[in-house]
Amino acid sequence: KKDISVANFITHETHCSRNIEVCRYCSELIPKSEMKNHIESEHVQVTCKCRMKIEKCLLKDHEASACPLRPALCQYCDIQLPFSKLQDHEMFCGARTEPCPGCSLNIMVKDLKEHPRVCG
Predict the structure, then answer these.
(1) From 70's CA, which of 25, 58, 60, 64 has a CA 20 to 30 Å away?
(2) What is the chain's mean pLDDT, rounded?
(3) What CA–CA distance (Å, rounded) separates 63 from 51?
């Protein structure tokens, strides 16, 4: 998959066909001697803590951005909880009230950032 000079092409093609394979899963060029190890280490199915089966090579991305059990921080109290529980927690947490230091009214936590504009 690279440019080869015409003078070396036949030798190069022979060498590649004997020693290199294209992985049937990821289309990477892998030395034939390492193909079994590549498949076992990268493409074996593993089970995430959320019980989803996924290729090992995709697990880190899944855990970081798609797993419903990945850690997430509440925007109101900074507690860490699973992403799947974040929305319900933030609805409850944001509805709590705290007294405004300026006007002493009880303001919902979710509105505290905007309140100073109305509070004066």
Answers:
(1) 25
(2) 92
(3) 12
